[in-house]
Write a structure and sequence with these properties.
There is one protein chain. The chain has about 375 residues and is of the alpha/beta class. Helix content is about 45%, strand content about 10%. The strands form 2 sheets. A 5-stranded mixed beta sheet has the order 2-1-3-4-5, sandwiched between helices. The chain is globular, with a radius of gyration of 24 Å.
Length: about 375
């Protein structure tokens, strides 16, 4: 299925920096030190070397929806500090019923690869072909590989594509109908993902243990509270001997790896920290979505209270703040709502109407 596209974001290795002071007996820092010691995180110099027992690699996985409606959210999660799997159905490139269907699949791949190049230049990309139970012959795999090579060899993103040395191809065929890990193609794909990630410089980056402990605490809080005021985050950081600019640097660091969202450069959003990235997407998708396919709990209330404004949004794409307060009723803090609106404006997801048009709308209301 062409909609099964995902990106795997790799968290930095959880190592203890030599310069960390542990004089103050903070429980969170001590717990982080204990976990790091237990994990024995000493990565091999080369991903091809045999890993020592105890080596661990943590991956955070984002499944980026294949529907075109959600393409606009890619910029929030795509980072060069990640590895991307772009998944397609081999049948559509080989035994499609018509030329149009094949071209549609290739254009779909074009869109994904262009998006990755734009937002994550330099990040490794693996093309993965599914339905290996149907397209199983080596000759067909070679035909698909040749097609992909000629399609992308002159594209800027081509340098980011990881070659499949097992068969000398430009994609990784898998049979995803078999039990977990039973398909040789899936097993090989997992090995290549691991070795490719281990070869990235950022995976070997040393991280202060206080930053790790702080992030663990924020993750724990994020399970029940998806967004914090910056002052709340700063108060939590004091438990880990962090204050001032170091807190800002730490939040920006984890944002860089898409582990949380903190926009220091956006006026409204710099006062908030988003702990649950999926929650942020859910909030924004209450405004930007295909209203015929995707429904939210607030839709009925919005239509009942403001039927004219609701029709205006669904039919013309014009959103009023009065309707927004209903759609975003789960965001109780008005300042927080305004901050999210600033974020969406900054990324071009919404745009303010000209004053004259706004006055006309008010007269209609």
């Amino acid at each position: 299925n062409n909609s099964n596209n995902s990106s795997t974001s790799i968290s930095p290795p959880k190592k203890h920096s030599e310069n960390i002071s542990t004089e103050k007996s903070n429980n969170g820092v001590e717990e982080a030190i204990r976990r790091v010691a237990e994990m024995s995180l000493t990565f091999p110099a080369s991903p091809l070397e045999e890993k020592e027992e105890g080596d661990k690699l943590t991956m955070k996985i984002f499944d980026l929806g294949g529907q075109a409606t959600f393409y606009i959210f890619h910029a929030f999660f795509m980072t060069k500090y990640a590895l991307y799997l772009v998944v397609f159905d081999m049948q559509t490139l080989l035994i499609a019923q018509g030329v149009g269907e094949k071209e549609e699949s290739l254009v779909f791949l074009d869109q994904w690869l262009n998006s990755i190049f734009l937002s994550a230049k330099g990040a490794p990309v693996l093309l993965v072909g599914t339905h290996g139970d149907i397209v199983s012959r080596r000759k067909n795999h070679e035909k698909i590989s040749t097609l992909l090579f000629h399609r992308y060899r002159k594209k800027p993103v081509f340098k980011q594509l990881i070659r499949n040395d097992n068969g000398d191809m430009w994609f990784f065929p898998v049979d995803n109908t078999k039990d977990h890990g039973c398909d040789p193609g899936v097993q090989h794909l997992r090995e290549v993902v691991t070795s490719t990630v281990m070869a990235q410089d950022h995976v070997h980056m040393k991280v202060p243990v206080s930053w790790l402990a702080f992030y663990d605490k924020l993750s724990e809080i994020g399970e029940s509270k998806p967004m914090l005021h910056l002052n709340e985050a700063r108060a939590i950081a004091t438990s880990f001997d962090m204050e001032g600019q170091e807190v800002t640097n730490c939040l920006c660091f984890w944002h860089k790896f898409s582990m949380l969202l903190y926009y220091d450069g956006i006026a409204g959003m710099r006062d908030f920290v988003v702990l649950d990235t999926q929650w942020a997407v859910n909030v924004m998708s209450k405004v930007i979505r295909n209203y015929d396919l995707h429904h939210s709990n607030e839709d009925k209330t919005a239509a009942q209270r403001h039927i004219g404004l609701w029709n205006q949004l669904v039919e013309e794409g014009i959103l009023t703040y009065k309707l927004l307060t209903v759609l975003w009723s789960s965001v109780k803090d008005e300042t927080m709502r305004d901050a999210f609106l600033d974020l969406m404006i900054c990324y071009g997801l919404v745009m303010p109407l000209q004053q004259q048009h706004q006055q006309q709308l008010k007269q209609q209301q």
